[in-house]
Specification:
InterPro entries (chains A, B): SLC26A/SulP_dom, SLC26A/SulP_fam, STAS_dom, STAS_dom_sf
Protein name (chains A, B): SulP family inorganic anion transporter
Subcellular location (chains A, B): Membrane
Number of strands of chain A: 9
Helix content of chain A: 55-70%
Membrane topology (chains A, B): Multi-pass membrane protein
Main location (chains A, B): membrane
Number of helices of chain A: 23
Oligomer: homodimer
Largest interface: A-B, 56 and 56 residues
Shape of chain A: elongated
């Protein structure tokens, strides 16, 4: 396996681009890293640490040249939801966060080993879109706390922050609210009135402005406070190492699995979208390994779970990044910030961080996806709506679980009542068409049945019921020809059902024949004893052959 | 809705048959009811009560003339597993059991309302067979306690009873063990050396023999003990009524849902098997209502969850039952036993009950199903093995959940990499066949692609990747014709993928056309804006038309 795959055949002319892009992403990532750490309920430095070593490890293996790995909004929210029941003080939370990152890494590596990356995703676009939209809303609502200076607990329904805003309006810290709203407005307008790299520097100005206002104006609002200077230590999660027996790490397993899955899907969709533009090639399974290593690096450097971020990667691409060298530059800059400039952020107001987070996640709310899905097909729209509501009402994990289960069940429900057509010869051709849609010739003794779906456990009984019912209507039938042109696979239940049908039909002096079955399906039936039991029923190459030999028209 | 549907058009000549069958089932059910109540960790009378009113309520609505509802082995085991964490003394357990029955009834009625009975089952035969086999083994192992007189806790792995048997062999109550083994041997041999109704009377003789040995022989082994005489009271579950706030009934919800599902599936499969023989007709959804009412009746009469039993129904059918009147007779006889003869069972040894249970569930262990599934297809065999192991290692609920999820995922995995064929004209016909399997004519400018699967979220990306790759190999291609003859449905993800493909192909000056799409799919695409975006790409009735008009061969 080649290390640093995106740096192969490096051209010297790219160096300038990578340096520039890396620097711009670093300028964006420093305030975001602190903000997302706060969102996850963790100390500021964990966010910064998550933007150093994990980037290097992703660069080592990852196949996307421009994916910017690090702390991201939705994974931060899921981290908060996973850890909140286990601890309340920041230090214990941070200790649990490294454990969580280690478990996320373990799941990603497990997915890598079982080759999950080669499976196409089982999560529909509607589910992901609804999940992301609802999670973004929860994140925005969580920021009301920082913007207003109110202390709002995490209990209560998702709209609790809005409620508190009204109920406790006399306690609102007005300077924080006004500063936050101004910064938010600035962040929303800035990209529209500027161009190129400058458009991405909004958060930098917001941070500088916020610090300036607080220090010069001597305004007393909540700020980030001390961030320990220096680099994280490279060590195993201490809590896990020394107290793993008391540690309730098993409780983190379901969360870790879902964070791993969501983090992977988010990263992969960003990477794929960029690959389309840059004509590069992503290897999904290798991405699992790369993200797994990035999370392991997070676990070993007092950080928390990471993934590839959408906004940040887009900035990276737009700023001209060519390879993962840009990410290495970003990591070095963030490390320098940790070493020498961490005290600059002591006076950074929380309300500014809140504004930065809101501006970053607002584009993730996509009502229109739900609307488009609904217009195309009610059931897809419903899945969007239910997933969206479930994330809001319960939490991110339960919500996505409900969404995935629902979309799978609906698909299976659809295939469980397959389209079954009784067909006849179309004019004098070799074509056989549905007798209900076309003028076709049929023979009273011969029933031609085409099933437009694989035969498997969820629908084989349906076929049997259909044929039984059809035969009870036509007592003259002596031959049933099953046309398998649309059957790609028959599982054990399907095979058993065919056997049962065979026996039942024979009791009524009716023969079952197969026609137009595909090669691989025939191979499988040949290996079983079905074909020998079929005799004197026959296997025909085409329905036309079958009809001719059985004396039909 | 007609009440007592199976008693419509009752012929007087059937009366003798129903009376006889009802009596024989009653003889079988009394010892079984006590035994299954013990298996569920409940007092003996709860089993008897479960064989009175629930039978009448099923008869009121149920569509199977011969299904014998009442306490059954696997539901008893699941009841034990659901209640064991909540209480330890028999009285509290019994109170929880009625609550569980009420929840099971609620789920069955919910399933009825959403029309689950019209969905074909999502549980494959392999999963059910493996689940039943493993549950039967767990039940057999649980009886070692009764047979040996040892006190074996419910903690520890499934093979704990065997281990205890060896470790505590000096404490084995030898009279119990010997009596139990003799009775077991008798129960296994009796049906083979007798015929007709007599063959079903084994348990009756076993009970009589057991009581005789204990009373006459003055042997000191554990017996059933006092059973309160009289009928159950018709009342709401008292515990639920007065203490529902303290009651942890929410914890019972998952168990209740799974018991409802399993109970329904077991009943339905027994009823369907009998319907095939008697040419009667089962209405699956109505069965949900009937079983829901039966369980509600169980909840209101101090019983526990019920279902249709396999062995008992077979006895009912073999004894000549014509309608549910037989079940009414059974219920009346059991009620008479409760009223006048309950003290007869005081001296019934537990070891005899253990032997009766073992003899009843041994036929449920079906290794061969797993073996046959494996021979047909490794993946089906694996599902059997994993479900089987999961039930043994964890518990019935988790096991069936794992089995269901696994079989669904494997099916989706299969459809997520659909068979995609590049096709060409077969000889001079209108048939188009796979270019890899047949000698066909193709045109370098036209790519004909047939997808043999519905286009949905799990596989639409796969199609796009396939076409992208195929086009990069053939730069002359100007037209891609997608043949939809095997596509029955396109979901929103599929539709979005088609749109994306359209745009990407157009950028490369390639047109996308559709051919042989089915009516319902075209209707859906017509309602969306895809067809208008397709232009100047076209929609063709057949691939042959498409090829001719696009100037290919």
């Amino acid at each position: 396996m080649r290390l640093f795959p995106t740096l192969q055949n490096y051209s010297r002319s790219w160096l300038k681009d990578d340096l520039g892009a890396g620097l711009i992403v670093a300028i964006l990532i420093v305030p975001q890293a602190i903000a997302y750490a706060f969102l996850a309920g963790l100390p500021a430095e964990t966010g910064l640490y998550a933007a150093i070593l994990p980037l290097l490890f992703y660069a080592l293996i990852g196949t996307s040249p421009t994916l910017a790995v690090g702390p991201v909004a939705i994974v931060s929210l899921m981290t908060l939801e996973a850890l909140a029941p286990l601890a309340s003080d920041q230090l214990t939370l941070a200790a649990y966060a490294t454990t969580l990152a280690l478990l996320v890494a373990a799941f990603l590596l497990l997915f890598y080993v079982i080759g999950l990356g080669r499976w196409t995703t089982f999560i529909s676009h509607s589910v992901i879109s609804a999940f992301t939209s609802a999670a973004a809303i929860v994140i925005v609502l969580n920021q009301i706390k920082h913007l207003s200076g109110l202390s709002i607990g995490r209990d209560g329904p998702f709209y609790q922050p809005l409620l508190s805003l009204i109920q406790q309006s006399h306690q609102i810290v007005l300077p924080a609210l006004i500063l936050g709203l101004i910064i938010l407005l600035f962040l929303l307008i800035w990209p529209r009135i500027t161009r190129g790299s400058l458009a991405k520097t909004g958060p930098l100005f917001a941070v500088a402005g916020g610090i300036l206002v607080v220090t010069v104006g001597q305004i007393n609002i909540d700020t980030v406070g001390d961030i320990p200077s220096g680099l994280p230590q490279f060590q195993l999660p201490q809590l896990l190492l020394h107290h793993w027996q008391q540690l309730e790490w098993q409780q983190l397993l379901p969360s870790a699995a879902i964070i791993a899955l969501i983090g992977y899907l988010e990263s992969l969709s960003v990477a794929s979208a960029m690959a389309l533009q840059t004509r590069s090639r992503i290897e999904p399974n290798r991405e699992l390994l790369a993200l797994g290593l990035a999370n392991a690096a997070a676990a070993l450097t007092q950080a928390y779970p990471v993934a590839g971020g959408f906004g940040r990667s887009m900035v990276n691409l737009a700023a001209g990044a060519r390879t993962q060298l840009a990410a290495v530059v970003t990591a070095v800059v963030v490390a320098l910030v940790c070493l020498f400039f961490s005290d600059w952020f002591t006076q950074l107001p929380n309300t500014v961080l809140g504004a930065i987070i809101i501006a970053a996640v607002l584009p993730l709310i996509k009502w229109r996806d739900g609307l488009h899905a609904w217009r195309y097909q009610k059931s897809d729209g419903l899945i969007w709506l239910i997933t969206f509501s479930a994330v809001l009402i319960s939490n991110a994990e339960t919500g996505i679980f409900i969404g995935i289960s629902l979309s799978l069940l609906l698909y299976l429900k659809r295939t469980s009542e397959p389209h079954i057509a009784e067909v006849g010869r179309y004019q004098d051709s070799d074509h056989f068409r549905n007798i209900q849609r076309h003028e076709v010739t049929t023979s009273p003794e011969i029933l031609l049945i085409r099933v437009d779906e694989n035969l498997y456990f969820a629908n084989s009984q349906f076929l049997q019921d259909y044929i039984n019912q059809r035969i009870s209507q036509s007592p003259q039938v002596r031959h049933v020809i099953l046309i398998g042109s649309a059957i790609n696979h028959i599982d054990f239940d399907g095979y058993e059902t065919l056997q049962r049908m065979l026996t039942q039909l024979r009791q009524k002096q009716i023969l079952l024949h197969l026609a137009e079955f595909k090669g691989p399906v025939m191979d499988q039936l040949q290996a079983s004893d079905l074909l020998s039991k079929l005799a004197p029923g026959q296997v025909f190459f085409t329905a036309s052959d079958a009809l001719r030999q059985l004396g039909g028209k």
